[in-house]
Amino acid sequence: MKAPRVTLDQWRTLQAVVDHGGFAQAAQALHRSQSSVSYTVGRMQEQLGVPLLRIDGRKAVLTDAGAVLLRRSRQLVKQASQLEDLAQHMEQGWEAEVRLVVDAAYPNARLVRALSEFMPQSRGCRVRLREEVLSGVEEVLLEGLADLAISGFSIPGYLGTEMSRVEFVAVAHPDHALHGMNRPLTFQDLENQLQVVIRDSGRQQPRDVGWLGSEQRWTVGSLATAASFVSSGLGFAWLPRHMIGRELREGSLKPLPLEQGGSRQPAFYLYSSKEKPLGPATQILVELLRRFDIACLETHAPAEGKA
User: Fold this and answer.
1) Most exposed of 132, 180, 190, 282 (fewest Cβ within 10 Å)?
2) Interval 228-286: pLDDT, tens
């Protein structure tokens, strides 16, 4: 890659000339001599081979080319300043990145609110968000590939902070044979029907949470795919209520009238890596995840409880 011929200082000098209305004013703002400012801009035009300014009376006015380059240069100078700020924050122990792995069943709305609040406080810290299913979250944390994890399981050897519960509802299309029985259903009724289950993304010890042992089983890769299949009349499944609200309202899904077990509400937990202490950015994100988990629960609990 060819090395730049123009320095950031030169771009800053040009910006000062334009923003302050002339060479003398720019020199005063930059605490430099007017001749130094004039030389810097003149040398810059020579290096670029493009006229950036023209003198109109006593005022320096941008040429068309100068206007385009100046606009782009503002982004360049801003990014360079942000890079320097990030380096300073890192020197103070501020992380460059926080890696967060979340079970796909956890409500996205709560993550969005927490991350939206985190962004203006992040000081350039990036967030790497990864979604896994069931034991996949635990594996990512144990492999040291995540700083924070939200899982629906208790992970051995880790002290997790209990988050809110997520309701899973047994559902099928209203025209499904199970709804045609017109009576409370037992697990024996379900064993003879096609069950749609979500594949555990873990590789070491994948789990079949919610599977009844029926041979009529279809395994899919995501909760969204499972919801699509079941709402089309293919089998039944336990799905997070927050993900199927529209289908329940529109009538393409209907809760199964089970005698017991029709609704499950596992607790979710927030874990942090034991590989390193939490940095300041990660601590802020932890507090925001906890705050908006509680806030969203209080806001949406009554609505989520409706069928």
Assistant:
1) 180
2) 999 999 999 999 999 999 999 999 999 999 998 899 999 999 999 988 888 889 999 99
Query: 0.85 cut: is pTM over it?
Result: no
Q: Which residues make beta-bridge pairs with 236? A: 172, 195
Q: How far apart are CA 107 and CA 299, in angstroms?
A: 13
What is the rounded distance in angstroms from the CA atom of residue 149 to the CA atom of residue 140?
Answer: 8
Does residue 211 register a pLDDT over 70?
Answer: no
Alpha helices in the chain (DSSP H): 8-20, 23-30, 34-48, 64-91, 108-118, 135-142, 177-180, 187-191, 223-231, 245-250, 280-304
Written as one string, the DSSP assignment of 76-127 is HHHHHHHHHHHHHHHHTT--SEEEEEEETTS-HHHHHHHHHHHGGGSTT-EE
The CATH label, of 3.40.190.290, 2.60.120.380, 3.40.50.720, 3.40.50.1390, for the domain at 168-264 is 3.40.190.290
What is the dihedral angle through the alpha carbons of 84, 85, 90, 94, rounded to the nearest 10 degrees?
-160
Cβ atoms 198, 173 nearer than 8 A? no
The topology (CATH level 3) of 97-165+267-304 is D-Maltodextrin-Binding Protein; domain 2 (3.40.190)
Helices 23-30, 8-20: inter-axial angle, 10-degree rounding:
120
Give the CA angle between residues 55, 56, 61 to the nearest 5°.
65
